[in-house]
Amino acid sequence: MKAAIIFSFIVMMCWSCTRDFTNLNTDPTQFTKASPEAGILAAVKNLNTQMANYNTSKYWDLGHLLCQQANRYDVTDAGLWQTMYQGVLGNLQQAELNYGKDSAFNNRVQIARILKAYAYSILAGNYGPVPLTQANDPEHLSAIKFDNEDSVYSYVLSTLKDAAGKIKLGGDKMAYDVIYNGNLQNWAKFANTLRLKIALQCMKNMGTVATDHIRDVMSAETSTIASETETAKMNFENVNGNENPYFVKYIKGNGYFPYNPTATGQAPKLSEYMLTLFRSYSDPRLSVYYDTVPLANRLLLTDTLTSDLDDSLRVVSYPVPYLGQPKAGTKLAGWTNLAGLADVVGSADIKSYSNANPVIYQPNRPFIMLSYGEALFLKAEAAKLGYGGAMSPEQYYYAGIDANFAYWGINSALRDAYKARDGIKWGTKGKGFNNYLGLVNTDIPQDDNYKIWTQRWLNYFPDGGFDCWCLERRTWVFNLPPHTNPGGNATYSPNPTYSDVPGRASYPVSVVNLNPAGYQGALEALGTARIDDYDIYQELHFAKHREIPDWSNANATYDYAFLRKWYGTSIQSLQAAAEANGFKYTISQTYRP
Question: What is the per-residue pLDDT for 194?
């Protein structure tokens, strides 16, 4: 309840951290000055609320974790820029300016610096060049310099190291700490683990600067996140004004089906590619990440099954409990194999696709910033690169899977069976299904880096949509299908009818209009030949180069193998499932091959 009170108070600040805080640290003989807690907590809430809202509008789509109703690759700015510079960095900077020289506030200032570095890592990962050295400086209002991407990441890495090192465990604490409840050691662990994460991301563009940070963090591994209790997360409450943003949008807003049966808006859906991946490796997380489709709306699948009693085959139709919404849901003109066939798998009824598990919409569900599971996958990659660690890369990898399964409450028998499958088991390669158009597949190479990246990706559900996007651009770990209704800046692309994953977000119009000199500097730092920053495939420095396929004339052919044999290969297994789950099936043909 204390958190709710302080958050209600923060909301009234309306981005400012220099207003009259009469109930916090007020000296009646001095001018009123906000306590650092007020600015830091405002920044934390503004940051995580915006990241959650961007998941629902952008990052879930970019990461293929969930599909929005509009189903777009929209990378135009929708408030992130303003929130970061005013509601996050503005508050943190005030805490640093007001108390940076006062030893009585040392730890709170270091926490502000850690959060500031975290915010800048998000800005750089979205846009590339951003204002840093002249940001929120009243001497630079009409012509604010954009620092290049490498400079921003260098600042992030050095600040995280310095701030973590300056935290004094016996020193001051925040009166209200919604992330670590006053545990200063965990703040230092968060900073060090975040430093490892950013250094791994920046190996391509930062070279030895990045690898030196990786080696430094791994040499002091006890100073990183090492248990679930050390996960960095912001807590929410079932209290008006402090509920989880997903709950506020999809449940409390009362405008989305199925949470409001009469609503026209549709809650986000399981993506078709993610379903294909889960089906390829019999991943038990399908049933904890996503919800089953109501029986009346399920796709009727036509399948061919054997019998345990004779050598005849049965052609059967039965409803499948899960279905993913495709990104390539509209036929392109060059896909001649699909002429005269339906545009999408299943029906046009959006209700036939699976929703997210309602557990992620609970009002008091915390927002995960950096988890224990992610920390283990980061260490697995660092150890595989030869930068040390207390365990082998394989041990970190399996521990990461264990941590993720434990977080979701999946039993050890299912976990261990999953870890033993080819493509999941260390040192093996996996043969996955094709997506429903046969354009891409979910194979996992023998290279164990891909296993680490795949599991890290899956660990990001549901809060890490931005991290999925960063991981995709850095590694191209997945062979993702094209998006045939991309939106955003895809209309500026040479092939506006489809899009691969965008390379960056575009700056808001306010930057173009109010800071033209800074904007031109940003274009130069990006290295774009355009007069704007609307190239959907503009690569940031940390990203791996990728040639975009010509999807317009791809050999698309419907392939439903990833759905077939849902309940097993025999008619008897289907009968048992129908009795247990209350659905009906029909046999249209019996024949002997």
Answer: 98
Residue 245: C-alpha distances to residues 16, 370, 412 (Å)? 21, 18, 32
Give the helix/strand (H/E) hosting 553. none
Cα Rg of the chain (Å, integer): 25
pLDDT digits (tens, 9 = 90+) for 181-218: 999 999 999 999 999 999 999 999 999 999 999 999 99
Domain 2-19+36-246+362-552 part of CATH 1.25.40.390? yes
Give Cα 487 distance to the centre of its chain. 20
- Distance between CA atoms of 189 and 505, rounded to whole angstroms? 30
Question: Cβ(454)–Cβ(477) under 8 Å?
Answer: yes
The conformation of residue 12, written as its DSSP 8-state character, comes to T
User: E-strand spans in 62-203?
Assistant: 66-67
Q: Where are the domains of the chain?
A: 2-19+36-246+362-552
Q: SS3 sequence, 456-512?
A: HHHHCCCCCHHHHHHHHHHHCCCCCCCECCCCHHHHHCCCCCCECCCCCCCCCHHHH
Angle value at C-alpha 362, between 359 and 367, nearest 5 degrees: 95
The alpha carbon dihedral of 405, 410, 415, 418 has a sign of negative
pLDDT surpassing 70 at residue 115: yes
Buried/exposed 113-144: b ≥16 CB within 10 Å, e otherwise: bbbbbbbbbbbbbbbbbbbbeebbeeeeeeeb
For residues 342-354, one letter each, b for 16 or more C-beta atoms within 10 angstroms of the residue's C-beta and e for the rest, the string is eebbbeeebebbb
Residue 11 amino acid letter = V
Mean of the pLDDT values across residues 561-590? 97
Task: State how far the Cα of 121 lies from the Cα of 142, in Å rounded to an integer.
Answer: 24
Predicted structure pTM score: 0.93
The torsion defined by the Cα of 370, 374, 376 and 379, in degrees rounded to 10, comes to -90
* pLDDT at residue 2 tops 70: no
pLDDT range class, residue 341, cuts 50, 70, 90: confident
Query: For every residue of 255-310, which 3-state class applies, written as one string?
Result: CEECCCCCCCEECCEEEHHHHHHHHHCCCCCHHHHECCCCHHHCCEEEEEEECCCC
- Per-residue three-class SS string for 350-373: HHHCCEECHHHHCCCCCEEEECHH
